[in-house]
Amino acid sequence: MAFKFEQLDVWKISLEYSDLIYELAEKLPEHEKYNLKSQIIRAATSISLNIAEGSTGQSNQEQNRFLGMAVRSLIETIACLRIIARRKYIPDNSFLERIDLKAQELAKRLFAFRKALTSVKKSISEEQPNYDADILE
Q: Which of 5, 70, 116, 137 has the fewest CB atoms within 10 Å, i.e. is most exposed?
């Protein structure tokens, strides 16, 4: 059984972004293990987790709130990327540019999804189970 969030393009893109962030994190110097490496991985992971959590049985308003947290986590990873570039920890600028392009794509999708949620009345969420009240008695 596939969960609803697994069908969302924005969630799939967030996984691609996480893969790039994990690849980047492995290239960071050892002395950044408990600082930038840990921070950027946690923030990137948080993006996918918030998209998933927001999609399950929530109202549009609640789902929008979780997408907002995903956006904030994305911005956190971008701030980490700027520090990494400033410190010249990654000499391959094309790799950093590839990550940046994926971040821009993800940001556009997150903002578009949030906008769609505020313009429709129906929630995009998991179907709620139908419990028969007679069985519970």
A: 137
